[in-house]
DNA sequence: TTTGTATTTAACCTTTAAGTTAAATACTCC
DNA sequence: GGAGTATTTAACTTAAAGGTTAAATACAAA
């Protein structure tokens, strides 16, 4: 596995057990035993998964008596969001020659629209920031 | 490595060579030899990386004489964007104890607000869909 | 200080990732 | 069909991921 920060982040996420653990932590702190319960694997195996997440700084850990509670620490997920965002146009548009041309045109339109929508977009941001618990479907997969 | 679709996607991305190849393909189709040029590794090594990307459906390949041109096929990147989006609030808020308390309060407020803001939220979605090209910086890393 | 509970570490196994070099394939063109 | 170019496959190596069980560690409480 590559050792650069971003590769470490993605490699940590490239495992369904670890993603399930992150999803569980959305509901709040949990102990190793609690986190392990849904899985069929041994406790040491889960402990290793937690170490991978911890090294990727996707979780942080506390200490209370013999418990080492985990909580989500999603900083690196922002890197993922920022990185993938750069490719948005590749999944939002089809990519043959005609579309290349249409894409150029659209770009101009959007730049014009941006000015008009600034006010609405600002309001959007505030609402997003408030509605932190509105998510019906919690993170999954 | 896990074999579920999403894990395969993330594992393919968890390598700087493969991300560099994707970034290169933003500039358009390229042959294996062209893609290999920037790297110090052998051609078969690059060929293997391409196979990983292909299996993850992050690239598609053509055939012209002895060339097997690659082009980006970013469909799975949308899955990444959608998945990570679920965690946005975790990097947009700080997460110490006080915030835990404030978040609880906000949750109540938001539930009330949701009714009133339904109209505005719908409009928000439309605007997001329009502003796909507002991205200044091209892909990197 | 012993006991009980939570968690990690050690030692090991099996599979796979990622690279190598050398040989095979797939084409084009003469 | 032989030569030249692009790419893949084969065979091999090394290192690491992800799991196991058994033992060690850390702490609370009796």
Describe this structure in words.
The structure is a homodimer of 141-residue chains. The first copy, chain A, contains 7 helices and 2 strands. Chain A has 141 residues and is mostly helical. Chain A folds into 2 domains: 5-75, Winged helix-like DNA-binding domain superfamily/Winged helix DNA-binding domain (Arc Repressor Mutant, subunit A); 94-130, no CATH class. Chain A has a two-stranded antiparallel sheet with strand order 1-2. In chain A, a hairpin with an 8-residue loop joins strand 1 (59-61) and strand 2. In chain A, helix 1 runs antiparallel to helix 4 (43-55). The radius of gyration of chain A is 20 Å and the shape is elongated. At the A-B interface, helix 1, helix 2, helix 5, helix 6 and helix 7 of A face helix 1, helix 2, helix 5, helix 6 and helix 7 of B. Chain A binds a DNA duplex (30 and 30 nucleotides) through helix 4.
Report a brief summary of the structure.
2 copies of one chain form a homodimer. The first copy, chain A, is elongated and about 50 Å long. Chain A is 62% helix and 4% strand.
């Amino acid at each position: 596995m590559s050792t650069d920060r971003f590769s470490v982040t993605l490699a940590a996420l490239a495992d369904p057990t670890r993603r399930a653990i992150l999803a569980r932590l959305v509901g709040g702190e949990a102990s190793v035993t609690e986190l392990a319960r849904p899985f069929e694997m041994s406790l040491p195996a889960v402990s290793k998964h937690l170490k991978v997440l911890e090294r990727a700084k996707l979780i942080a850990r506390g200490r209370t008596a013999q418990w080492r509670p985990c909580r989500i620490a999603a900083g690196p997920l922002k890197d993922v969001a920022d990185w993938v965002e750069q490719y948005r146009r590749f999944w939002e548009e089809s990519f043959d020659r005609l579309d290349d041309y249409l894409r150029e045109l659209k770009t101009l339109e959007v730049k014009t629209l941006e000015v008009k929508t600034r006010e609405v977009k600002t309001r959007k941001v505030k609402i997003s920031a408030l509605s932190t618990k509105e998510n019906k479907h919690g993170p999954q997969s």
